[in-house]
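User: Teach me something about this protein's shape.
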Amino acid sequence: MTASEKLVTQKEKAAQAKATLRIIEHNPQSQQLAKELTLDNFLVKEFSATENGKSPITISVKQDILLLQYCIQGNISVKNIKKSKSTLFKQSEYNILSLKAGDWFVTLNDEESKLIHIYLSEDFFHRYTPNDYSAPLYNLVAIGKLFPRNLYLAPRLKSILYEIDQCEFSNHLKLLYVKAKIIELLTLQLAQYEEEKLIPSALKPQEVEKMIVVKELIENDLGNSPTISSLARAAGTNEQYLKKHFKLLFGSTVFGYITSCKMEKAKELLLSEKYRITEISEMVGYKHATHFTTAFKKFFGYLPQSLKAKMVFGSCFSFGVELQAIEMLMMV
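Assistant: First, the predicted structure itself:
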């Protein structure tokens, strides 16, 4: 994944405020690797325990910025150097944090940890956030993060992050594409927060934990298609509560979530160009490639064979917009 993406529109040139980040990484032998990066509206960076070891990564900022942190694997903690309390992220959790000027520590807590950072200037963030979104914006000031509790990284969001990583455009088109994807991430995250606010407070912590167990069982075994009864037994609940509580917590039925995970994983595998369609269909639990192809087309609206062409010609954006539409972002 690229370390920096810069996009300057005609409207942004006059108001642009550049920020400088100094990131001190480590390799597994704890040798320091210092990098000076410039933030022009947004900046994308990936870290993993494999490459960075488990020593804290230091992020120094000279002016306030925002951080979209996605914990892909393992668990991660973030803290300001002047404060003792850390913000912990478990696997498949994310949030939007306010990084005040100063030094921050990001620690990859286990050997499998992997995360993606998207740094945003405050101007960029507020430009695409509703003016009447007062309560969450207050959270950024009061508690330092947009959402009071971390949200769960759904397959759709993971897919967008992967699309940013695999973008084959170059130069200005690539910058337009990444900007569009970041705006899409913000949109879906705000929508997810609005949905999760409706979760009844009567849903007890232990019930939430059981649903998380089910979610992880689904995500970690896409080659199979578990039944509701088997998932309920594994989580220590019954089928009725599983269907009800899972929908409340994640906004999707159990079977809907299984299908979503399988299709997003299949899309990721297709974009990697390492596997044939017959191999991918087996990897996501389909015995027959024709059944997989039918399910893929029903989910995405196009055949898996056409995915690569759609990416190359710029028409495979998550909201279905065409390339000329995305270029309208230059006017925003």
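Now, about its shape. Residues 205-301 form a domain with the Arc Repressor Mutant, subunit A fold (CATH 1.10.10.60). Confidence is low (pLDDT under 50) at residues 1-16, 312-332. If you'd like, I can walk through any region in more detail.
User: That's plenty for now, thanks!
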